[in-house]
Specification:
heterodimer; A: mainly alpha; two-stranded antiparallel sheet; 19 helices; globular; B: two-stranded antiparallel ribbon; two-stranded antiparallel ribbon; 4 strands
């Protein structure tokens, strides 16, 4: 059997098995979910080590293609390029962490909760793996259902408003994408296969632009890009910790991944046309999201708005269409999954202790919980992109990649986006200060337990990845390279077709030749 | 020397200099609270000594044979589809005579301050004590990365790393909100500078496609400044213009880290940290990183005269501005903090006017005397029960003899009175500045000389005031009467630094004898290419400088000291109060540090906060959520409620609708058919 298919459906099989177990023994469900997600992680490691990132290797690996509804041109076609591989690994890594983090937090309907998480994992992996437009759409919408339940059933007070908002926002945009998918199949010889469609698609310029917009809208809501972001703070705030972590860690990446995999390569001409506008919106999002963080009084809402800012960086790097910018964006998708996922885990731990998300309820708790405070500061540093953490590598590549790109006004956008680095330091350090520093003002905060062993296990992988990805990014950058190069070349071909001056790729340097260094280390 | 490892071995173990303190930080961070204070001290100081020994060996080879380079493995490297690789950074280290100098200062002064801290911080509980040494070791590791890194980007790793440690150490006593805030203020202000640093790096990447110092210097050597750039982002600019842009961006970073106008505001507040931190980070090492950055890129700065002029004039303005604020401060650490800002200004005059060696020498000597002054202030605070107000001191000379004489030596050195070290470095800076002629602005050197001389006068005045109010006269409070001398762990580092602050003069003697300008000759290989260019473009003129500026400087220092003595020692004792009384508003303004913090609050921070609040209320809550999202939902709801009327189960209405509909159909069919 195909390894990728196995990895995709093991969580679903686990969920089906969980259906058979009695609901009044929650321990079994927790153990089962943890075991299944760990097995999935173990299996996905074979994907990681089996992937060939050489330039000449196949674009999609671990491919499987089967007929599904041949009369309609719909097939079961899955495969991974390097970017999808990285995101699948992020998913399989985060899910066991999330399951472990809910050990005590979820007491109610554990069976259903774990089933929802496992179904969600299959849907997420499937979305990254799909190479058929209909299959992609099926997985894409399948993600909505468990997420809807997670927020709606296990969320906090205002959860119904948040779920409906989340569902309608994303679903409405996705339906337009479905229409676009249908339109694509009418104009590519009747197939829904992504690889064939990408090669055979034949639409007019105007049609291409409308199709791009339909796809882009669905993805932009998911990212979320300014001004389509307002579902996110509500969804994050009301979701249980596990929901927030998966939402921030993986689901938001679906939007940026969608741009990278579908909207940009399927309609490169249209993408070039809309690129300056999207880049501007992304930059506005960076600054706007950061400013929104200044006025939040709720920890989760603050972190949610910081996601708007961080994902703005990812979108800016994508629109730069230079090797550095695109690679940085891919890296930043992983970083955001790790560090914002980590932030939500830590905020969840604080919530379990004090049952409030309000900043004003905390203050001075570093003394009681030194390890939790340390972990929080480390994750904060990653979030504000301190060199030595993963965040810096991503931000630096995105900003330098945009500055060095041929994007119109790329340098101005870089300067504006770089102010996000300053603002990010402000709001994150204010968060740390309000929660952990200062005198203890609330009596309830005097006796809070520090990290338990289980919580330590939950947060340890996050810390390890923050440091490892900060100091040794090469293994995580390498798989992305072939996919990034192909995308840049695709845009170069599109420009050649249109007869446009080159606006993609990296600028040449001012010095033409480099004289050799004088020998003997003289300087 | 046979017992030393070979240069190649020293080269291979360069990273060990950084890894020793890093390992110390890791051990103390993870286990420090459990192993007890003794072991934590052992780990922290042991790591420093290990680092110092390797640094000394490596330095020996740099001094006697050649530069040491460690070719590291790649860190961040991205290659485009066309094979072009602009972002390509490796973990490489470079030890030449410039970084070697700072290496010795960091490990040497760092070790002394670790020893001092072991006693100073002994009142902390185990967890706090271990945390302190974790941060302090981590700081040293980051500072060494900053200095040893062989590329701008690796320097940036250390650059932000020291910023982080500074943040953690300023806010070390984080239960005090003000201290936590001071830490954040330092970090954020530095981030503003780092924003400039990053843009400078981007510009250099666009120009040269590298951030490696060796490659940058090598490429800079063959550039014609007037030539126009043909390709890339800066096409159409002259090389001089493009490099000026990049250097000005880098200088924004330097001004943030080295507390220059207008980004100096964080440093005085940084005194919230424990005093050894003020000595190590906020006087001797971290704050001088900006000076190092300019000196390190001397080759590029010589191509950008306008950038050099900016560095010079900003340095001069800061030197005077901070000195004036120091006149009226009453907190012993605040006086020293403004003094540091002012002295950093002198260093920038030096590196800005092309006297790189003098700027760096002043950096070294300042590390000695200011380190000594801060540690002395810590010793005073220790003896006075954490009192920092100099109005409540007085007469401590007899109570704390060791602290007193070391403080006195350092004061004279800082004042710049012959023959102590501060005189030579400061006056070399002013002398070179007077005789420089920057092509972009010929008068900037002489102007800086004038402003700098005034600042030197101010330095002599406020240092004398500080010394006299603290140590001489009669004790003015109960605590001052009962002050006690500190332990040897604290006074021995003071003595070492005081001796260094005195004998440092040997490095900078003027003239043309074999022992004169030792330091200048020693660092010459680093700066020679830049200096040659400065002579070529007429920035400097060959020939010996007249000696009168040295005499003038000496008179200025003595004059400032005499005024200080008269006003606070004997003679014009009523003058300070009379002055304050005569000019109450001016005096208030000076005591309030010219209210620059308040200006920033009103001009930048306040508006930004209002903007954020306004945007949130108007755009997010009202426009997007209120009007669009919930508005659409309400609209749908409204249509639903209208449509619902047709299906509310009222049979009569149903019948009515059916009748109407039937009539309409009938009319249509018949009517249309009939026509």
């Amino acid at each position: 059997m195909n390894l990728l298919t196995v990895v995709t459906f093991v969580p679903l099989a686990g969920a089906l098995f969980a259906v058979l177990l009695p609901r009044d023994e929650p321990g079994q469900h927790r153990a089962l979910a943890l075991a299944v997600s760990l097995i999935t992680l173990g299996l996905s490691l074979f994907l990681w080590f089996g992937f060939d990132a050489a330039a000449g290797a196949a674009e999609f690996q671990f491919e499987e293609q089967r007929a599904w509804m041949p009369s309609l041109g719909i097939g079961y076609h899955v495969g991974l390029d390097g970017v999808a591989l990285l995101l699948v690994m992020l998913t399989t890594l985060l899910v066991p962490v999330v399951v472990l983090s809910t050990w005590k937090a979820v007491e109610d309907r554990v069976k259903e909760f774990m089933i929802a998480i496992l179904v969600l994992e299959t849907a997420m992996i499937g979305t990254f793996a799909a190479l058929d437009l209909v299959l992609f759409y099926v997985f894409w919408e399948l993600m909505l259902i468990p997420m809807y339940l997670l927020i709606g059933i296990w969320g906090s007070q205002n959860r119904l408003y948040a779920t409906v908002k989340f569902f309608v926002y994303t679903f409405a945009a996705s339906v337009l994408m479905l229409l676009a998918i249908l339109f694509v199949s009418f104009n590519d010889g009747g197939t829904f296969d992504y690889v064939q469609a990408r090669a055979a698609l034949n639409v007019t310029t105007a049609q291409g632009r409308w199709l791009f917009l339909a796809f882009a809208l669905a993805f932009a809501v998911k990212v979320p890009m300014f001004p389509l972001h307002t579902w996110l703070p509500d969804a994050h705030t009301e979701a249980p910790t596990a929901g927030s972590v998966i939402l921030a860690g993986v689901l938001l990446k679906m939007g940026t991944f969608g741009f990278f995999r579908y909207a940009m390569p399927l309609f490169p001409e249209a993408a070039l046309y809309f690129r300056p506008h999207l880049a501007t919106l992304a930059t506005v999002g960076i600054v706007y999201g950061a400013l929104m963080c200044f006025v939040q009084t709720d920890m989760k809402r603050l972190v949610a708005y910081s996601s708007v800012s961080h994902l703005g960086f990812v979108m800016l790097g994508l629109m730069a269409i230079s090797a550095e910018g695109l690679t940085g964006s891919v890296y930043q998708m992983l970083n955001h999954g790790v560090s914002t996922g980590g932030l939500f885990l830590l905020v969840g731990m604080l919530y379990e202790r004090r049952h409030t998300r309000l900043l004003s309820e905390y203050g001075g708790v570093a003394k009681q919980m030194p390890w939790l405070a340390t972990a929080f500061v480390v994750v904060t540093l990653s979030s504000i992109g301190l060199p030595g953490t993963n965040g810096f590598v991503g931000e630096f590549l995105i900003l330098s990649g945009t500055f060095l790109s041929r994007l119109p006004n790329g340098q101005v956008l870089t300067v504006v986006a770089s102010t996000g680095v300053i603002l990010g330091a402000v709001y994150m350090l204010v968060l740390v200060e309000k929660v952990f520093y200062g005198p203890i003002r609330k009596e309830e905060n005097r006796h809070l337990p520090d990290l338990s062993l289980r919580e330590g296990l939950v947060i340890a992988p996050v810390i390890v990845f923050i440091v490892v990805m900060g100091l040794m990014p090469a293994p995580f950058l390498a798989p992305a390279k072939p996919a990034v190069d192909r995308l840049v070349q695709r845009f170069q071909q599109a420009e050649a077709r249109l007869g446009l001056p080159s606006r993609v790729g990296t600028v040449p340097t001012a010095v033409a030749a480099r004289p050799p260094l004088p020998p003997g280390g003289a300087y | 020397m046979p017992f030393l490892p070979t240069p190649a071995a020293a080269e291979a173990s360069l990273w060990a200099i950084i890894l020793f303190p890093l390992a110390g930080a890791l051990i103390n961070g993870l286990f420090g609270r459990r192993i007890g204070k003794g072991n934590a001290t052992l780990v922290a100081i042991g790591a420093m000594v290990g680092s110092l020994v390797i640094a000394a060996i490596a330095f020996y080879w740099v001094l006697t044979t050649r530069n040491l380079r460690f070719q590291g493995t790649p860190w961040i490297a991205v290659t485009g589809a066309d094979g072009q690789s602009l972002v390509h950074v490796a973990w490489g280290l470079l030890l030449d005579r410039l970084s070697g100098t700072l290496l010795l200062v960091i490990t040497g002064v760092g070790t002394l301050i670790h020893v001092y801290s072991a006693s100073y911080m002994s009142h902390e509980d185990d967890a706090g004590y271990a945390r302190f040494f974790t941060y302090l070791n981590l700081f040293v590791a980051a500072m060494l990365t900053l200095v040893l890194g062989d590329s701008l980007l690796l320097t940036f790793v250390g650059w932000e790393g020291v910023g982080l440690c500074s943040y953690l150490l300023i806010g070390f006593w984080y239960t005090d909100e003000q201290k936590a805030f001071a830490g954040r203020k330092a970090f954020v202000t530095n981030r503003v500078g780092d924003f400039g640093f990053l843009l400078g790096v981007f510009a250099l990447l666009a120009l040269f496609g590298t951030t490696s110092y060796a490659e940058l210097a090598n490429l800079a050597r063959v550039i014609t400044p007037e030539a126009t750039i043909a390709s890339g982002l800066f096409a159409g600019w002259t090389w001089q213009g493009a490099i000026t842009f990049a250097m000005l961006c880098l200088f924004v970073g330097a001004a943030g880290k080295s507390a220059q106008l207008p980004l100096y505001i964080w440093l005085p507040d940084a005194m919230a940290g424990p005093t050894p931190v003020s000595a190590l980070i906020h006087a001797a090492t971290m704050v001088t990183a900006g000076v190092y950055l300019v000196a390190r890129n001397s080759m590029l700065f010589t191509l950008a005269p306008a950038a050099m002029a900016t560095v010079t004039i900003v340095g001069a303005a800061t030197a005077l501005f901070a000195a004036v604020i120091a006149f009226t401060q009453n907190d012993i650490k605040k006086v020293l903090a403004y003094s540091t800002v002012s002295q950093l200004g002198f260093m920038f005059i030096g590196v800005g006017c092309g006297a790189w060696w003098a700027g760096v020498l002043h950096l070294v000597i300042h590390a000695f005397f200011k380190g000594c002054l801060f540690l002395g202030a810590g010793s005073v605070m220790h003896g006075m029960g954490d009192e920092t107000d100099i109005r409540k001191m007085g007469g401590l000379a007899g109570k704390m003899p060791h602290t007193h004489w070391t403080f006195l030596v350092a004061t004279i050195s800082a004042t710049g009175i012959l023959p102590l070290a501060g005189f030579w470095s400061k006056d070399a800076i002013l002398g070179y500045s007077l005789f420089s002629s920057n092509p972009a602005w010929h008068l900037v050197g002489p102007i800086a000389y004038g402003i700098g001389s005034l600042a030197a006068l101010g330095t002599a005045f406020y240092m004398t005031r500080l010394y006299w109010l603290t140590f001489q006269g009669k004790p003015r409070t109960h605590a001052a009467e009962h002050a006690h001398e500190s332990s040897f762990a604290m006074t021995v580092p003071l003595m070492v630094l005081a001796v260094l602050a005195a004998v440092g003069l040997l490095l900078g003697l003027p003239g043309s004898s074999p022992v004169s300008e030792l330091f200048a000759h020693y660092v010459e290989p680093v700066f020679a290419p830049g200096t040659e260019r400065l002579y070529a473009v007429g920035h400097f003129h060959a020939g010996a400088h007249p000696a009168w500026p040295y005499f003038a400087a000496w008179f200025i220092a003595v004059g400032g000291t005499v005024i200080g003595l008269l006003m606070y020692g004997r003679g014009w004792l009523k003058l300070p109060a009379a002055l304050a009384g005569a000019l109450p508003r001016t005096y208030r303004l000076m005591v309030d540090k010219f209210r620059v913090d308040e200006l920033y609050e009103a001009a930048i921070i306040g508006p930004l906060k209002s903007l954020a609040r306004g945007l949130w209320r108007v755009v997010d809550v009202f426009l997007i959520d209120g009007l669009m999202v919930n508005g659409v939902a309400r609209l749908v709801g409204f249509f639903g409620s209208v449509g619902r009327l047709a299906q509310d189960g009222d049979i009569q209405r149903y019948a009515g609708f059916m009748a109407l509909a039937a009539a309409a159909i009938l009319a249509t069919v018949l009517g249309v058919g009939g026509l």
